[in-house]
Amino acid sequence: MEVAAPTKQDIEALCINTIRTLSIDAIQKANSGHPGTPMALAPVAYALWQRFLRFDPVNPIWPNRDRFVLSNGHASMLLYSLLHLTGVRAVDPDYETLGEPSVSFDDIKNFRQLDSHTPGHPEYHLTSGVETTTGPLGQGIATSVGMAIASKWLAATHNRPGFEMFDFDVYAFCGDGDFMEGVSSEAGSVAGHQRLDNLCWVYDNNHITIDGSTELAYSDDVAARFMGYGWNVTRVGDANDLELLTRAFETFREEHDRPTLIIVDSHIGYGSPHKQDTAAAHGEPLGEEEVRETKRAYGWPEDAEFLIPDGVYEHFAEGIGARGDRLRMEWERLLVSYHREHETLADGIEQMQRRELPAGWDNDIPSFDADPKGLATRKSSHQVMNAIAPRVPWLFSGSADLTGSASSGFDFEEGDGFQPGNRASRELHLGIREHESAALSNGLSLSKLRPVWSTYLTFSDYARPSIRLSALMELPVVHWFSHDSIGLGEDGPTHQPVEQLASLRAIPGLNVIRPCDGNEVAEAWRVIMQQRHEPTALVLTRQDVPTLDRRRYASAEGLARGGYVLADSAGEPQVILIATGSEVHLVVDAYEDLLADGVRARVVSLPSWYLFDNEPEEYRESVLPEAVQARVAVEQASTLGWDRYVGPQGKIIGMHTFGASAPLKEVQRKFGFTPDRVAEAARELL
Hints:
The strands form six sheets. Strands 12-11-13-14-16-15 form a six-stranded parallel β-sheet, with helices on both faces. The longest helix is centred in the middle third of the chain and has 30 residues, at 312-341. It is built from 23 helices and 22 strands. It is elongated and about 95 Å long. Strand 19 (575-579), helix 18 (583-596) and strand 20 form a beta-alpha-beta unit. With 686 residues, the protein is α/β, with parallel strands linked by helices. The model has no long low-confidence stretch (mean pLDDT 97). Helix 18 packs across helix 23.
């Protein structure tokens, strides 16, 4: 008797249930995780990956691939199952594709275990095929907007007749938690304004959060909300209906003026006899008996664990694998011809992908003559960035409504910047949306552009989750913060940052640089542009600061080491004065006063604790010798952290309260930021 060959529907159901059961088994073995969403969204992910996604598993960093973002990152096993079943290959830090799988069978079995490639939430730098780190809800969809903008900009600047080098789409799965987070409103608003028709969010409408039904706290009309943002909204009434899902993705492909939201009605924990549609399916394993009963409901061998039936790998290889391979090879052949006809643009694509810089990128960086009146460092930074940008065509600048005030705009840009009618502009107006500004910049960086975005330092608090992810993902984003201290004066304590420097310095891998004058700013940019894996918080003054005479004081090149001896006296110093930013000038004046009194003083400029702490011990000892315990640190911010540099016997002149609203000089006098007070503190120590 002949056995009927499996139908297309049979193999599709087999693949979908393989995704589900791999997720269930991995979570059960780890005794930790979130099974409900992978069980619900497996058909949606299958339809997208197998039928639409332009992605080559053999080369997951192909520049024109579609991007897939799992914003509801707690459903990570959904993504790991896809990465394993489609055969995604690993890529090393030098962007070389390796023969080994990104997510091996052992990685699946070691979900949430030490040193596996399957952590609890997807991590960009750890697992190839993960386009961005997600977990904090809202971050994935917020970042996806930057990816979609990057695709539009790359197309406008690099596509030529006969050479469509860039047209990638961006898909993001998200849930109720993403939409409750405020950043989703910022992101949805930006995407709608920019009419990003290459952006598709898939909303898992399952009505469940950790506490229970969404009715407890959430009654938004999501469709009306996104139509109000200017999105195309469509709905799929059953997450298991592959044909309706296919029609929805085709609707997105046919939309040419708006981003698309696909609302998918689903059942969390689909197939679980006792936990479907309950909060219990969200954040804990099903339990061994429930796993068996669920597998029975799927028609699956109930005692089989980590089963991948015959034909599943092959089916994915014939779908997304074959399509991705064909599209990627066509693109690479096109790139060869493109290189012959548009060599400079082609070289730029390759340099962008490897985060390299064009030859002579720093040739026009200015130097600044000594000037007692000087220049605000936000303005000197403006000059330096505008000297670099023409030589680095993928340097992108945006601002949260402070382009002029933070001085972060491009002088050569005309009009209203990047807009639906001007996709080639490198200047973004992001509105009063600090959180989305940082998240969007992460998306630009993940697409290999070099983004800068700006706001006032005190508003870095609004963007902190995305700044943290810049560091976690090791992305060279420049977070430009002006109005850096109580020195901004009359705006008062609501706008005067006090605790922000300490909190930013606490983020691992974030290079916080607070330069003291134009020449330190120039050196800061030399460091920033050569960083491939570190984000920077560039902290700049609103007020003018003197430009130091570098013939009398040390070269600003010392900034590259984080801290350096700016001024010294003959013989071993008796006291060391340490400062950053605008306060360097206070300690220089105090140094001159002490020197006139015969006190052997040293001035150390310490613009980057991050860089200084990474220097060899011998260098740090040469700058801050342990034998000299008389030390005074000065910074118009919280004193938290300064004890590591001044030691137990030193003094810190800093802020212990919020600031005050008054003219600059009065505020400085009130809180003790004067050369006389610095010199007095030094004498007290001696």
